[in-house]
Design brief:
This protein has helices spanning 5-18, 97-114, 163-184; strands at residues 22-25, 36-40, 45-52, 57-60, 76-82, 89-96, 124-127, 149-154. The protein is α+β, with helices and mostly antiparallel strands and 199 residues long. The strands form two sheets. The protein has a six-stranded mixed β-sheet with strand order 1-2-3-5-6-8. The longest helix has 22 residues, at 163-184.
Length: 199
């Protein structure tokens, strides 16, 4: 069975839900549905970037000024990748954004030592499991050891056919709730949306 990145993003969302968090898809121009989330618990809300990795590596690009895209605008990065130990499952790992930034700063410094004119347009990749057996030659310890938590999610727990349409619908509902809350000057948690089809 071919695993799709959208399935992995849905596994990441499900992992957060199973940790007792309320999760909303955060839409935006150029953002793939499910790639940005807002998560809520009793006392906090956090912005989360989701990365789906089919090959066990995570990549980020940089702005022209050299700052990392995405990493600096979120609180956490959640990565979902097919599990090497448990076929049919995704491994979902969560990283604080400052931990991710530090790892990518190290990777970038190593890359610049190897290629002094390394372009800001070129993405930087870091392996989750270290450098053995991957095309990445940076950050030999691997990102996985820096994860604040990790969990396995069976791919069967997420839909393959309706994942994309469900994510799009959830994103639409979340956007309507936010815009309605802003128009009326209330917190989005106070807004309930109900759609009816009259036949």
């Amino acid at each position: 069975m071919k695993i799709r990145k959208q399935q992995l993003r849905e596994c990441a969302r499900l992992a957060l839900v199973r940790r007792g968090l309320r999760v909303e898809i955060k839409p935006g121009a150029g953002i793939i549905p499910g790639a940005r989330l807002q998560v809520f618990d009793e006392s906090d809300e956090r912005d989360v970037a989701v990365r789906a990795s089919l090959d066990g590596e995570v990549g980020f690009a940089r702005h022209p000024n050299g700052d990392w895209m995405t990493i600096l605008s979120v609180d956490e990065v959640v990565v979902a990748t097919p599990s090497a130990e448990e076929p049919g499952s995704a491994e979902v790992l969560c990283f604080d954004s400052d931990v991710m930034k530090e790892a990518f700063d190290i990777a970038l410094a190593e890359r610049k030592m190897e290629y002094p004119n390394f372009s800001h347009k070129a993405p930087v990749f870091v392996a989750l499991d270290g450098t053995d057996g991957t095309k990445s030659k940076t950050v030999s310890f691997g990102l996985k050891v820096k994860a604040k938590w990790q969990v396995l999610i069976p791919l069967s727990a997420v839909s393959t056919d309706s994942t994309s349409s469900r994510s799009t619908a959830e994103g639409f509902i979340d956007r309507v709730k936010r815009e309605f809350a802003e128009m009326n000057g209330v917190d989005v948690s106070k807004v309930v949306i109900e759609f009816k089809i009259i036949t």
